[in-house]
Amino acid sequence: MADEEKKKSFWETLPGIITAIAALITAIAALVAAWNSGSKDGAAKPDVAAAAATPQFSTPPANDEAARRAAELERKLSEIAAAKAKAEADAAAAKARAEEAERHAAELERKKAAPQQGDIKVDDVTGMKLVYVPSGCFQMGSPESEQGRDDDEKLHEICVDGFWMGKTEVTQGQWKKVMGSNPAKFQKGDDYPVEQVSWDDAQDFIKKLNGKAGRKYRLPTEAEWEYACRGNSPGTYCGGNDVNAVAWYDKNNSNDSTHPVGEKKGNAFGLHDMSGNVWEWCADWYGEYEPNKKENPRGASSGSDRVIRGGSWNNSPDVVRTASRHRFMPDNRSQELGFRLLLGQQGQAGR
């Protein structure tokens, strides 16, 4: 009886046992499926123990990393801005240097193009050498204390533009190349100054030479002549105070004639024989100085005589002085009288 009751009880509980086993099997199957799904997706398999041992954080790690990256980005942006500013500053400095170099080069080119004191120009027709005399101002005339001074040498300030002037007086050789003849009394060689030429003769020579050379030569004004003669020096003679060094005059001339040009010492502008050897015609009519005419004066507007300057081989030292003024009728000639030419910086003609 008891065995039958046990058997009955077993059979009564068997369905529940089976149901429980089935539920267990189902749970195990679900766990396996979940495991396999994780493996396929590359996800890490759950480690319950590790999860229990590792501290759990939520947002703090992400916030720290973002702050670090933001700070790094800000630092790099700052470096980029600084590099950009430096590059702009360097570019601006380089541009300024380039502009300064351009200005300097342009100034050098301008100076190179513009004639400078001491530059020499050679006339194609005659071979005459001309030296450049820069513009400037000076005291024209002489102080009252100067020995041999005349009353018509009153001191006054004059300013003249730059010009080219014959390094020496016009020579006999140069005259012959233009005129085809030689009027000089002392025909000792082509390098002797031409003389026995009137003011009118000089104008004829200039007209013919300008036609051949395509330039506008002229006689210097009296102011230009004295400025060139002084050569920025207060000396008594053209080139200094030693008359024997710079001039042929009566006391050192033993042959009673002219001498080859250029034998005596030149002045600071490189001009020779402006004191002595032969007198030189100027463009001006002779007249009293007009102190109110400061810029490029051209002398009296009319007169009977033309100005001659410099003295000759036959004159005393007081006559070959820089400031000494004399006059001669424009159609007269003398064995002591010649001339030298001037070419304006822009080729302007005289009157």
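^ that was protein a. below is b, sequence first then the tokens
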Amino acid sequence: MVKNGTEKQTENSFTQKFGFPKVTTVDKIVDKLRDSHIQFIKESPFLVMATSDSDGKCDASPKGGMPGFVKVLDEKTLLLPDIAGNKLFQSYQNIQSNTYIGLIFFIPGLDETLRINGRVRIVSEEELENLNMELKVFNPDENSKILQGMIIEIEESYGHCPRAFSFSSLWDVDQILEKKGEVARLNK
């Protein structure tokens, strides 16, 4: 059997066992932001950031703010502010030894995500001031301030399909109202 470009590109033990992705799926993966990706980032108030250290120990951290809190510098570069939080700095410790990063952007109620993978460098508060970065959050408190930030150089960017949202009914309003106040609280 002669393999097409997509099969050569995605061949691994899993695709050999379970099948290859559709060409349209593979073609969504690009090395820069498309206009639709830029618009998605500008409308997104929330993302999950994944990092790992040099030993492969992982951390996933939620980040949020007003839509557009992540600044698009150009089609290959993002600026992500670090707004004061729990001060554990697990992601930053990981980045010191492994500069790879993964981001998944969400927009509440929308059954798609934007995935971005790339490399990151930490920037100081002073550098952020020079880039006109400002605090953009809905509910600031006395500790809300930008401590530092990250410049992300994009290596992969693509929209992700809605299957996980469909399977979970994550944005289902009836389910949200039903569970409000009834879920386990983690810090009690």
